[in-house]
Amino acid sequence: MSKIGFLLTLLVSVLVCLLPAAPAQAQSNHTFVSAAGNDSNNCATVSTPCRHLANAYAATAASGEIEVLDPANYGALTITGPVSIEGHGWASIAAVSGGAAITINANTGDNINIIGVVLDGIAIANTTGIQFNGSGGTLTVRDSVIRNFGVDGITFQPNNTGLSQLFVSNTLTSDNARSGIQIIPTGSGTTTGVLDHVQIINNNGDAGLHIESEAQTITMTISDSVSANNARYGIFASSDGGQPVSTMVRNCTIANNSVGSPNGGGLASFLTGATMRVTRSTITGNGGFSWTTVAGGILLSYADNNIDGNADTNPAPPTTPYK
Predict the structure, then answer these.
(1) 185 — phi, psi (to 5°)?
(2) What does the alpha-carbon distance between residue 256 and residue 240 come to, in Å, rounded to a whole number?
(3) For residues 236 and 268, is the Cβ–Cβ distance under 8 A?
(4) Do 130 and 100 contact (CB within 8 A), yes or no?
(5) Residue 13: inside a domain, yes or no?
(6) What is the pLDDT of residues 263-314, one digit of tens each?
(7) How far apart (Å, rounded) are the C-alpha atoms in residues 273 and 260?
(8) Which of these, 284, 282, 231, lies nearest to 258 by C-alpha position?
(9) How many CB atoms lie within 10 A of CB 285?
(10) Which of 17, 85, 236, 299 could be a cystine partner for 207, CB 3.0 to 4.6 Å?
(11) Tens digit of pLDDT for each residue in 88-113?
């Protein structure tokens, strides 16, 4: 090579080194997954969808939205920040052996929305539909089916000093080995939420809906919902550490829980600090008891409920009714 050629080559090399590196691919506010997608795509348009939710989530900006374009199994997902998943009723997410279909490690202020998904654990041991962890945040589940998991359908278990929230509506949680929905936060914070038009059916653990606190204040409202055919309790609320655990049961059906067993029943308020209020609800066909309190728990009725056909011959509520 001539001296001039060598110098030109050296100059080009130096210029290339001085050029700025190509920017990393930007995340999109709106991403897509499809049965015909490819995880090497950028997920950012309908014509370039990814195949799995995990890849689309990695390509989605904070508080962005993932759209499911057609029916398929889109793989397990771990969420670490705010996002919305629009499953449109046909997004299926399979169980992960020993884990959860959706794991959420949320931070304070994160809003996570899971809409229109079908989660099926196919009875694999030690699996959960949605596992919510983290230091706070809000989980909203809507228009979904969560069934056949080896542990819970939904486990809501934040560890926080602030506020965590759970909202579930128009959703079925059924045939899980433990609870349909378990709310069991830790830390010194506060958990609130509403379950509306939720069906909690045929779960085999301690309760269809299990609400329990060791140190947190919990306030939950269950409205226009059904808890039926669960192995022990329809709705169980407990204050293990004496903190206020307030549960409002409004316009609900609590039926056929703990059938054939005296060790369960419809509604149970356990330990000092737990208060359950019941209005315009039907409690029927439950084995063991219709409604009960244990060791200082309080259960109050607005005296407008239908209590009939239970194994304990349908007693008045355990504590003084509202006037």
Answers:
(1) -70, 160
(2) 27
(3) yes
(4) yes
(5) no
(6) 999 999 999 999 999 999 999 999 999 999 999 999 999 999 999 999 999 8
(7) 30
(8) 231
(9) 20
(10) 236
(11) 998 999 888 899 999 999 999 999 99
Q: Based on the fold, state whether residues 138 and 84 are members of the same structural domain.
A: yes
Total domains in the fold of the chain: 2
Q: Is 279 exposed, middle or buried (0-12, 13-18, 19+ CB in 10 A)?
A: middle
On whether both 101 and 240 belong to a single domain, the answer is: yes
Q: What DSSP string describes 260-299?
A: T-SS-EEEEEESTTEEEEEES-EEES-SSEEEEEETT-EE
What is the Cα–Cα distance from 189 to 217, expressed in whole angstroms? Answer: 7
- For residue 173, the domain's CATH number is 2.160.20.10
Last residue of a domain, one of 36, 64, 92: 64
Average pLDDT score, the chain = 91
DSSP string, 184-212: --BSSSEEEEEEEEEEEES--SSEEEEEE
Answer yes or no: pTM beyond 0.85: yes
pLDDT at residue 15 above 70? no
Give dist(CA 267, CA 235) in Å, integer.
5
The burial of 4, by beta-carbon neighbours within 10 Å (0-12 exposed, 13-18 middle, 19 or more buried), is given as exposed
Q: Where are the alpha helices (DSSP H) in 19-169?
A: 53-58
Q: Which amino acid is at 205?
A: G
pLDDT of residue 119: 97
Domain of residue 53 covers 25-64
For residues 209 and 133, membership in a common domain is answered with: yes
Q: Could you tell me the end-to-end alpha-carbon distance of the chain, in angstroms, rounded to an integer?
A: 102
CA 116: distance to chain centroid? 13
Token pair for 77? 């997902």
Tokens of 96: 């992960």
Phi and psi dihedrals of 94, rounded to 5?
-80, 160
The answer to whether residues 270 and 298 belong to one domain is yes
Instruction: Name the DSSP class of 214.
Output: S
Residue 297 counted as domain residue: yes
